[in-house]
Amino acid sequence: MHLTAYGLLILTTLMWGGNSVAGKYAVGHVSPMLLTTLRWGLACAILYAVGHRQLRQDWVLVRAKLPILFLLGASGFALFNVALYAALNFTSAINVSIEQAGIPMVIFAANYLFFHQRVGLGQIVGFVAAVLGVALTAAHGEFARLWALDVNFGDALMIIAVLVYSAYTVLLRFRPAIHWLSLIIVLTGSAFLTSLPFMAAEWVLGHGQMPDATGWALVAYICVFPSIIAQLFYIRSVELIGPNRAGLFINLVPIFGTLLAIVLLGEAFYPYHAAALLLVLGGIAVAEWSERRLEA
């Protein structure tokens, strides 16, 4: 059982790490807002074809909580990926992968500020280390650039994406108790609707680009693997070993994203990337170790 969960989680994080690489590779093959719209529109259509009966069974609960469900889909699925794919037009997939690793620490801070979850010294140390790692990446190894506000536009967008996805994760506590398939159908549908104005603005401003053959292949990969299969694998893994142990594997996403960017995109790996990864992953490890001691 554990080996099955571990295998599924490794594949899940590999697919999620590949999302940043696919988004970077999509530059010049399909415009980012259209990519977001196609991703969630196709994913919703596939999931609805499979789970429409379950959605009908849950519809009373879904309708009662439709505003919060729409907010969850709009933030965690649509706005996060709008910012991520747009960021990849200006910065590297390695930077985006490392900056995503700051999400757990922002979630930790939000839970402390808004829900008064207790914290230990180790969690504070871990939070500071992870934030320093993200800042080092955004500043391309030169902290002085932060003071001068000389940060790459793509890295700034990615930091916004991190904040948006962290808010989505914190708000998940308010989701209704419905079947996971109904939940994903509604979230992907909400993401599709939210992405439409961004796609329209992209075309009005003259930045729209229909997918070429490579673009359609990337849309298919992003729709099927990170959006659907990875979600199913993650849900099954949580059922097998629980959310706390499964959540630890998310720390593999920046590692896989970085390795894939080097191998598939030929991106350069600088010493500050290594320092940032150590800070971020080390900070997360210290914070999680401290949290487990508090729970013991």
Structure report:
This protein is mostly helical and 296 residues long. It has 13 helices and no strands. It has one domain (33-217, 267-295). The protein has helices at 2-25, 32-64, 66-87, 93-100, 103-115, 121-138, 144-147, 153-171, 180-204, 213-241, 243-248, 252-265, 271-295. Helix 3 (66-87) packs antiparallel against helix 8, helix 4 (93-100) packs antiparallel against helix 6 and helix 4 (93-100) packs antiparallel against helix 12 (252-265). It is globular and about 50 Å long. The chain starts with a helix and ends with a helix. It comes from Mesorhizobium liriopis. This is DMT family transporter. Its main location: membrane.
What distance lies between the first and last C-alpha atoms, to the nearest angstrom?
A: 25 Å
Which range does the strand content fall in?
under 5%
Stretches where pLDDT is under 50 for at least 5 consecutive residues are: none
Relative helix content: over 70%
Number of helices: 13
Question: How many structural domains are formed by the residues?
Answer: 1
- Helix/strand order: HHHHHHHHHHHHH
Q: Which structural class best describes the helix and strand composition? A: mainly alpha
Number of strands: 0
Roughly how many Å is the radius of gyration?
19 Å
Arithmetic mean pLDDT: 83
For the biggest sheet, the summary is: none
Shape: globular
